Amino acid sequence: MLRERIEHHNYRYYVLDDPEVSDAEYDALLRELQTLESAYPELITPDSPTQRVGAKPAGGFGEVRHRVPMLSLENCFDETELRAFDRRVRERLGLGGEIEYMAEPKLDGLAVSLRYLSGRLVQAATRGDGVIGEDITLNARTIASIPLRLRGEAPAVLEVRGEVYMPRSGFEKMNAAARARGEKVFVNPRNAAAGSLRQLDPQITAARPLAFYAYGLGETEGLSIARRHAAVLEALRGFGLPVSDEIRRVKGVEGCLDYYRAIGRRRAELAFDIDGVVYKVDDLDWQQRLGFVARAPRFAIAHKFPAEEAQTRVLGVEFQVGRTGALTPVARLEPVFVGGVTVSNATLHNMDEVARKDVRVGDTVIVRRAGDVIPEIARVLPEMRPADAALIALPAACPVCGSEVVRVEGEAVARCSGGLFCEAQRKGSLIHFASRRAMDIEGLGDKSVSQLVDHGLLTDVASIYALHDKRDQLVALERMGEKSVDNLLDAIETSKQRPLARLIFALGIPGVGEETARELAAHFSELTALVRAQVTDFIERRGVPGIGPKTAQGIVDFFLAHPALEHGGGDLAGFLRSLAIPKVKGRVLDGLVEAFASFDAIKAAGVADLVNDERANVSGVGRITAENIVTFFAQDHNREVIERLEQAGVSPAAAPAEPARASMLAGRTYVLTGTLSGFTRDEAKAALEARGARVSGSVSAKTTAVIAGADAGSKLSKAEKLGIPVLDEAGLRALLEGEETT
Ligand SMILES: NC(=O)c1ccc[n+]([C@@H]2O[C@H](COP(=O)([O-])OP(=O)(O)OC[C@H]3O[C@@H](n4cnc5c(N)ncnc54)[C@H](O)[C@@H]3O)[C@@H](O)[C@H]2O)c1
Ligand SMILES: [Zn+2]
């Protein structure tokens, strides 16, 4: 029965701090019951979960009777529901205009009530069932942000209502430590906070990273303040209680929605988890007139964010093949609504990840989609695993071309060995070549590349430049038409003039990203030089193979101790061997002779001359990338493609004479904010600094420009206020390439 199921989940959640289902699923059950009860009001009983808050205390703790009940909040999940709430409020108050609300973050922890008598903390209690809570005074005393004494002139009685929560950083640290000890980890900061606070041994609570925010009042005596919720918060602050500085006064539904969206964008940046925002009528007299229903006040509502996690089932696993042949396992899921969209696939990244999470086909899993991040499987619920759940195995053959799948020892990825014989790799490399940051050929995206490959019009990247001879065939294709074919051919023609760095990046050499491609273009100036390069052109060897710092020091010390040693002539290797210098034999001995040729040179060598190390001539190109580049250009088919590209007139401008790059942006200050798609923050910072710019963390009048990625927050609004130019990611690229002067 529905009520019993809800009660069971309440018990798991509120008493055991160990829920079995996601909040979204629980909310759906509760709504189902609410809908039923509103259709058949005669079924409502006072003990129905819709009429009650939380659950009775667990026992083990003393009981506290709340003098002012601790209620829950009504929920809304979208704009329509919010408007309905606002309309109800105005109708009840008989008001026409916009209502002023206080908008607050809805912290995801657990509610507590702190009782101060003449400024001293005398009791702390959980919400319990709203009427009777658990006495957690000793535990609450261990939380640093809960003052034991109030500041200023405290009233005779002050009950403070607020949320005990666990900041995200503390949660992650605590879970990492638990994982290292092989102990159970908490599924989210809320359960961690509840589980940590409701410990019978306060010493355990003391060791947990808990914090507190105050947001309201219970019983008070002798407190005189303005009849405004804002004044309540101000007073709480004045008594030394922590109050969130994200709280704002807003006007009407539009103000509420603006606040909701703005904080929603910054949700991931906040130091704590929030599951939504709360709007409260600011005027306390109005609050009083609005009053309460059974389990919640009528003057406030929680506007919840779409759940970032949801529960679903793994129906199967497919392996996708990327342009480098990497096989990515992708779980096919029973469609589920999470993070605001319906998700039916989630990446499993690679086989190590599959093993680490122990995902099997048939498993019930928690899917997570935070912000615009690709959905992923957060964890498996092993207790719900069916007996016939199937292990996920790496296929022996590529699902696209049937070539053998190889997995390099020690590497997480498995690859199809088919190379350009593999259609998936061919399509992938064509899409990459034409992509915006590579050769930027508009009209050659995922779909059209796929279509052209399927019709045999494209084979490799050089075949793009033969398309103009196939105009008739192109026009005959579905979704093509004269106009779009002409546009495509124009775009292809234009792409012949892209700078060398872009062409190098477009070729898709393993390990060569945009930044490395730029370095390579600057170093080699033309493609033929890069094609002919050897590993030694990238990497300079110094010292003698096999000699590390210790051996080197040993050699230097030996000659310091024997300054008079001379080599009378003859076999140098034999003479060295006869000296029996520690570690100097075999490869090291041969290497010394080869590198230095004379005994005097070896005697004179310092540690730095002896130690074997490598220096990169091109920044960002280490041995592995160097080998990748050389291997790439050693392949006949790749050389042939390059030749055909050249014949077709793809003649990238040699890197423009770099305007003393190191000082290109000297004297300028940039601020980075939001998420860039092509760079990490650190990469963007390094690239700017390499050009002489300063990168600062805060916006001021001295800021040259703010570079804003997706979901930029307060720094962007500050820049707009100060009238400081704002660049997007394309602007940043132009700036780095010296094409723009902001
Ligand atoms: N997964 C499960 O099995 C399960 C079971 C029961 C409940 N739940 C979840 O618990 C939630 C319901 O719990 P609830 O009754 O505590 O309601 P709620 O969490 O939706 O809202 C009320 C609570 O919000 C908190 N809050 C945070 N910031 C606040 C602020 N600024 N002002 C006022 N209050 C603030 C308070 O603790 C208050 O008690 C739902 O999200 C539900 O999905 C899940
Ligand atoms: Zn393949």
From TrEMBL:
**Which residues does the UniProt record annotate as the domain BRCT?**
660-742
Q: What does the entry list as the binding residues for Zn(2+)?
A: C398, C401, C422
Q: Does the keyword DNA repair apply?
A: yes
User: Which top class of enzyme applies to this chain?
Assistant: ligase
- Reaction catalysed by this enzyme: NAD(+) + (deoxyribonucleotide)n-3'-hydroxyl + 5'-phospho-(deoxyribonucleotide)m = (deoxyribonucleotide)n+m + AMP + beta-nicotinamide D-nucleotide
Q: List the GO biological process terms.
A: DNA repair; DNA replication
Which CDD domains would you find in this protein's record? Answer: BRCT_DNA_ligase_like, LIGANc
Protein name (record): DNA ligase
- Source organism per entry reads Acidihalobacter prosperus
Q: Which gene encodes it?
A: ligA
